[in-house]
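S1.2 Input.
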Amino acid sequence: MSATLLSVADTSISYGKVEAVRSVSLEVKANEIVTIVGANGAGKTTLLNAIMGILPQHGRISFNGQDLAGLDIEDRVAAGLSLVPEHRELFGTMSVEDNLQLGAFRIAKATAAQSFERVYALFPRLKERRQQLAGTLSGGEQQMLAMGRALMGEPRLLMLDEPSLGLAPLIVADIFKIIGALRAAGVSVLLVEQNAKAALQIADRAYVMELGAFILHGPAADIAADPRVVASYLGFQHAGASAV
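S1.3 Output.
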């Protein structure tokens, strides 16, 4: 059995007096894709931000056996954690290549050259557009660039926040194929995604979040077959409409 890479234990996150995430526990093992599905406002993004050190939290979060308490964002990146935020946060007036270079700030120059090769192999379109300004890319290309930039630091765990948001179905399919390729290359993935059907198809395990708490968790295939999940998140897909 694979070793646990990320462990979140009894963790709560508040905005002032409002408790946005309530006593959640989660784990991601090595070479595993885990997804968190749920509606807008459920607390999914808040949890990712706390794991990354962007938000304070109460509880214990450890990565590769190391307690992350007291570690800032750069330390967490150095430990092998990386986050692709929902809005990508690219530098639009910089080239594709320069955006990627920013993701390699903590690694040696020779290693960065290898990282460029790996990222361009995963995202050939970025190589074609490496001198193009990031702000002129299509939405799908910008998502690829945001993922590529995060991968430049050679993370062991990549956290993705709504990677399919606003993208055409064919581009979404490409993004999810790449997520599967990351697992095959030894990168674990924690995926937050409203497109429950696509997320559950690719994930090994899943957590369902409502109102700041996990109400279900288990193998992704079991979660996808649960009547509550079908009714709340997969009903439209089963009826033949697009994912919400």
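S1.4 Remarks. The domain at 1-80+162-172+189-235 is CATH 3.40.50.300 (Rossmann fold).
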